[in-house]
Design brief:
heterodimer; A: 6-stranded mixed beta sheet; 31% helix; B: alpha+beta; 8-stranded antiparallel beta sheet; 3-stranded antiparallel beta sheet; 4 helices
Chain lengths: 553, 196
């Protein structure tokens, strides 16, 4: 009995000793531990190295901001820009050559002025005379507005892509990406690339094609659709933010390049500060609410030189934590960051005020006579769904009979004008009667719509100098008559309008004819495919419609 | 005379019993000793490893020449001795720290590397590639870097401590980490050194 007890005791003691001995000799590595990342005092950390080979974001001009790497949206994405009222635009002009994709925000004039300024700056930079240009049917210019992710493409890809680039891949490409719509904010990034891209050899992607880039500029605009204020890259940050970004970046670079010090980095010189400011202008909001910022080549500091590191030859991307980004933000930017998770409040009501500059884009005015009629409501539906504007020459009697249609047309931004009370040949009436026919109808339309009416279209186009003088208003005729009253059929109506219109033209339809109303969508699409922008008659002349007979711009 | 009659079986059992008792006592002593080593690090031998909490300074040298504050989870061996050994929590990096003879960090390091070269441990001293930086702590660091090793001296105009930093295989390889990925941790270590 004693022997068994002793054996058990011995075994227990040996096992205990073995376990204790093992524990004493080694600890298991902590597989969950991660070394800290290189970062500056503000928590700025380096992202993977970005090569600069004249491709994406290369800044060969040395004067303008470089571009970020990838698109991240802030707040809610915008799956259907038209649905929230964003107006899309596109310009192609092969004489410069240039292609531009852009958007306007109705009811936000400051934003639209910035966009127009951006477009005109690029056009004027070519140094060539400019006139809006339309293209033959099938030009494929109907797709408009921003192209998702296009602002992050390589210059070669932008220049070579028929959707964004100039003819032949040489010239200027302007494109935009919608960054998001949230709270009262809409964010849009624009990029302008001027240069020449060579058609890539077989097997080489357009993105990797050789390109000689003359200028490459990115501008991000955030519009507050409630206040109408617009902030851009330059006004988003506090004055001291670029210097802090630079110091943090150099600090992180110092560690990457083998430094062992965490001492504060000396203040940047003027050139380095400009480099940081440019990087901050192109800053992207990251998924975590922080920023991803990309410096162009040339970051240099005594702290790096001491490690034997010259100025950076490639782009340097860093991540800025949300807390630091917030501390760098100007008050307006802080408000925007705070609204990032809120749903978009929507465009201002009645927002059909996006500018139409017919010296910039090829315009045509589509006009409808003799309404309103039982078909006018359907036509207004089509125009609204396609964000298209037309001019309605209404009869006074018809307007009186359908006041709601008059009010609706006006409320939706359509232009209204007089087509007389009863559709007489004005040249057969006394001058007083002719003038009354025009102005009585104008008074009715004006009263119903709340807008002053100051144009008319003489029935049958019949007008003489006496009538012109008696009425004293512009008499709007047409450059293209579809003769739709002869009921030639829908296809003929499209053929009689879409291929034949020239920039500045005015086309005549009647919204009393069902085929004219039914083909409105095809006509609009066909004209846009050729590069046209639909304008009201007033817009065709920038609000200054000349006196006398007017048949085109 | 009377003769004591002894049963051979009882004799054998008694001998075995004594042997068992002795073995039991011996193994119990061994167990207690090992437990003491585990529970009270630093007792008996300077080779005992201790995981630190990231706040407590660890003394370097006997007498103390400097202190260092390793991050949480680092293992420290030989605290208070002339060779303190730090192992990263993932066991991928080992840092050996020892007091150095008096002198500026760059001089101390150059001398150390020269000595190493003299001992044939390095193909060349590389003293001409020594880089010197000023730390946030106001001390200076002189260092010579290679892909797998950093030799450094941290100090002021008169005193310094020497650091030998190297990747520990196979743990570094298993964690897929190179020396660069440990550098921010190394910066934190170096910046935490205080003399005296």
């Amino acid at each position: 009995m004693a022997t068994t007890w002793q054996w058990r005791g011995l075994a227990l003691a040996l096992v205990t000793a073995l376990i204790a001995g093992t524990a004493a000799c080694a600890r298991e590595p902590d597989a969950g531990w991660k070394p800290p990342v290189a970062q500056g005092p503000g928590g700025v950390s380096l992202l993977a190295a970005v090569k600069s080979t004249g491709q994406k974001g290369a800044n060969t001009s040395g004067q303008q901001s470089q571009n970020p790497k990838n698109t991240r949206t802030v707040g809610a994405a915008i799956p259907d820009p038209a649905k929230i009222g964003i107006v899309s635009g596109r310009i192609r002009n092969d004489s410069l050559p240039i292609q531009a994709r852009y958007v306007y925000l109705p009811g936000v004039p400051k934003f639209n002025e910035r966009v127009s300024e951006l477009l005109w700056t690029a056009i004027k930079a070519t140094g060539k005379p400019y006139a809006p240009q339309a293209f033959p049917v099938g030009a494929g210019l109907g797709a408009r507005g921003c192209v998702d992710g296009s602002t992050e493409r390589t210059p070669a890809e932008l220049l070579l892509d028929k959707a964004t680039g100039p003819a032949g891949g040489s010239g200027t490409a302007i494109t935009c990406s919608l960054l998001g719509a949230f709270g009262p904010y809409v964010g849009v990034r624009f990029r302008t690339v001027t240069g020449t891209a060579e058609t890539p050899k077989q097997g080489v992607k357009p993105a990797d094609a050789p390109a000689k880039v003359v200028a490459d500029r990115t501008t991000t605009l955030y519009a507050n659709v409630r206040t109408g204020e617009v902030s851009d890259d330059a006004t988003r940050w506090r004055e001291e933010a670029p210097a802090e970004l630079w110091r943090d970046t150099v600090s992180a670079l110092r560690t990457r390049h083998g430094g062992l010090s965490n001492a504060p980095v000396a203040a940047p010189g003027k050139a380095q500060l400009a480099l940081a400011a440019a990087a901050l202008e192109g800053a992207e909001t990251a998924d975590d609410g922080g920023l991803d910022v990309t410096f162009g080549p040339g970051v240099a500091a005594p702290e790096l030189a001491g490690l034997g590191t010259d100025a950076t030859k490639d782009r340097t991307s860093v991540h800025v934590p949300a807390k630091t980004a917030e501390s760098w933000a100007a008050p307006s930017e802080q408000q925007r960051l705070a609204a990032a998770d809120q749903p978009f409040v929507g465009m201002p009501a009645g927002s059909w005020t996006a500018p139409v500059d017919c010296t910039l884009v090829p315009c045509v005015a589509v006009t409808y006579d003799d309404g309103p009629s039982k078909h006018t409501g359907e036509l207004l539906d089509t125009l609204k769904s396609k964000q298209a504007l037309a001019t309605f020459f209404m009869l006074g009697n018809a307007a009186s009979g359908s006041p709601d249609l008059v009010r609706r047309a006006a409320a939706e931004g359509q232009e209204l004008a007089s087509h007389t009370m009863t559709h007489p040949d004005l040249t057969t009436l006394s001058l007083a009667a002719a003038s009354a026919q025009v102005k009585d109808a104008a008074a009715i339309i004006g009263k119903l719509s709340g807008r002053e009416v100051t144009m008319y279209r003489p029935p049958y186009g019949a007008v003489n100098e006496k009538v012109l003088r008696a009425v004293g208003w512009p008499a709007i005729l047409w450059s293209v008559d579809t003769n739709d009253w002869r009921e030639p059929g829908p296809d003929a109506l499209v053929q009689r309008s879409v291929p034949v219109l020239e920039p500045g033209g005015i086309v005549l339809f009647h919204d009393t004819h069902v085929d004219s109303v039914k083909t409105a969508g095809r006509v609009i699409d066909g004209l846009r495919d050729r590069g046209f922008t639909l304008a009201t008659v007033s817009q065709l002349f920038d609000g200054k419609v000349p006196a006398g007979r007017v048949s085109s711009r | 005379m009377s003769t004591v009659q002894t049963n051979p079986r009882e004799v054998m059992l008694a001998r075995r019993r004594r042997t068992m008792i002795a073995a039991g006592i011996l193994s119990s002593l061994l167990t207690v000793g090992l437990l003491l080593l585990v529970l009270l690090p630093g007792i008996g031998t300077p080779g005992a490893a201790e995981a630190v909490d990231g706040t407590r300074p660890v003394a370097i040298g006997d007498p103390k020449a400097a202190t260092i504050v390793p991050g949480a989870g680092w293992e420290v061996t030989g605290a208070g001795s002339d060779e303190v050994r730090l192992v990263s929590p993932d066991h991928g990096l080992t840092v050996r720290i020892s007091p150095a003879p008096s002198g500026k960090p760059a001089e101390v390091l150059a001398a150390e590397l020269g000595a190493d070269a003299g001992a044939g441990s390095e193909p060349g001293s590389g003293a001409d590639k020594i880089r010197t930086e000023t730390l946030a702590s106001k001390l200076a660091v002189a260092h010579l870097d290679s892909a797998t090793r950093v030799s450094a001296a941290v100090g002021d105009d008169r005193r310094a401590v020497l650091l030998g930093v190297e990747l520990s295989e196979p743990d570094a390889k298993q964690a897929k980490r190179d020396l660069a990925s440990y550098r921010p941790a190394l910066v934190a270590l170096v910046e935490s050194i205080r003399l005296g």
